Amino acid sequence: MRYFLTCLLWIACTIAASADGLRALPEATRPADRRLGELRNLNSYFPFQPIEDPEAWPKRRSEIQRRILLSQGLWPMPSKPDLNAVIHGRVERDDYVVDRVYFESIPGHFVTGSLYRPKGKSGPFPAILSPHGHWSDGRFYDAGDAQIRADLASGAERFAVGGRFPIQARAVQLARMGCLVFVYDMTGNADSIQIGHRPDKAAHLDRATDWGFFSAQAELRLQNMMGLQTWNSIRAIDFLLELDETDPTRIGVTGASGGGTQSMILGAIDDRIAAAMPCVMVSTSMQGGCTCENAPYMRIDQGNVDIAAAIAPRPLGLTAADDWTVELETKGYPDLRQLYTDLGHKDRLTAAFNLHFKHNYNHVNRAVMYAFFNRHFKLGYKEPILEQDYVPLSRSEATVWTDEHPAPRGEAIGDPHEVRILQLAAEDSRRQMDALIPKTSDQLEEYQRVVGGAWETILGRRLDQVQATSFHQVKAIKREGLSIMVGLLDHAGEQLPIIEVGDSGAKGTIVWVTDEGKQGLWDGDRLNPLVAKIARAGYRVISVDLIGQGEFVSGAGSLDAQRMWYQRGGELAWHRFAGYTYGYNHPLFVQRVHDVLSVIRHASSTGNQHVHLVGIGGHAGAIAAAARSQAGDAVGRTFIDTKGFRFASLQRQDDPMFVPGAVKYLDVDGLLSLCVAGALDVVAPELPIVERVQRASETSKGVRWHPSPQDLLSAIGEWCLR
What we know:
- Helix content is 32%, strand content 18%.
- The protein folds into 2 domains: 59-197 and 217-427, Alpha/Beta hydrolase fold, catalytic domain (Rossmann fold); 457-560 and 587-720, Rossmann fold, CATH 3.40.50.1820.
- By secondary structure, the protein is an alpha/beta fold.
- It contains 21 helices and 20 strands.
């Protein structure tokens, strides 16, 4: 009996040493990590991120631009085929004319709209893009009798026709003021009939090949509806610049609601826009509820106020109403005013706060817009500029599709068309990426700017951006003659359970990342023999429970799905758009990369400064490679075994390894190619992209290929014991 009890005690102690002994927190207690709180979403708070001085603005503006472009699959900018623009069916009015327009933003995909021109005047003319926003029927919008009666009574509108057809009204007035105006359809509105605006069902197109929007493969390539809409807007500028009468120095954009989103986006990313007036959209509150206003990564570390600011120091106009912009005057606008003042152009910012009106682009606010463009485009009109009555276009006069110009049909609409344009976009991106892979050292800089810059934005944190870490030792134990410390590593509201094995670390520190977290250092009830051997050789070995591993989850193991945020409970396909989650929150993979960087920062700031990195596992290998790509020269040698993992194999948008854009930017191979400046050991027969980048690099310390995981482990042991 005594022998039996002794055995039980020995077993209990062994378990305590190898399992419970590794815990930094009591059972069922999770780390005090801010990331375990509620997900951010489009209804969160988005204050402006201020700059320290005006000299910092160009860099900050560039960061905002890259994040927007990347989020929508426009980094780098896609190829621009011929527009093949068709202008027909002119409608004459007394002092302006309207032409029907369609052109191809992507081969076979049409942008449709109405082009208003001054009559009896000679150019060159300023040109204004006019995206319509989420009003019913878009360009064909008719507010109806009841609404216009209410608007006339409240003073929101001046004329019945102008108030009933307000999207036409602003185009008419700007044309009368001597501007070209292109009112174009958002996807799925008015004459844009090839793809619906947002689908109720999309699961049938979520597949490994021939995918549609709202699929894993589309997200892995950053193909989304907002990107298509923004691309259409960029091509609309191209269209205006093809017109002989356009003044290229005076191109503007204005719209409200969803049209305000497009206006601020276009002003931020395209320097051809000389002035922008996004209305009833810019705020620190709700950021835009539609899939055409959201994209992965776009509102991480920035919001609509930052995006609107990115046009600075070019002119910016804003309006607010009794909607989500109601607090703009005190939240957001003061920051913009300070920015324009600091940049020496406070006269280039205009704002109107007519809060007694609900969400609108009514005559009161349109008059502010007319004055805005009058001043900045030097149109020469006496202010205030008030609308006059006009004869609106009927639907038959406005539509671009006629008997002579038939609407798309058959394979040019619906699912076949959606699949086709995404395949065209994917192939264009592949060609661009292939062309970027350097053959010589002088091509390396552009590769690093585009591919390296993309991953820098996706990963969202470099090692030099990791603030000071603090380590709190919870317990110290002895195992197999080695000192083991268990504790908590804190960084900026993030808390990680870590374990440190080894006494002096005289030879350096090895950060060891596994799929099992710090438990991966153990082999049953004993330390992993290789880890023990390395520690005895004079290295300190640190391992960590990354977020979603070990002490972050109940029981052993790791999360099998990421948390997602859905619109309106997720009933319809568009409600479940991944951009509603990843547009505001780092993917779990990225958060885990941040954790590894925190451990590297801790390792490099304590004891011996030589830090090396090991990542072994179907998750851990790619995570470690990503961390190494953002660690600069702080990491010496890196050992990676991804177990063959590639992002392209993922089928679920909530997979723990899901990273929007990962396939577009060359998958794991692209990540590893960004690590070649340091010494790199990889389990793989060969990786052509990595090899080409290594050959082009004049600073690479060498890449060693290993045919098997065991060969890599042997190499780690030999290197540490050399």
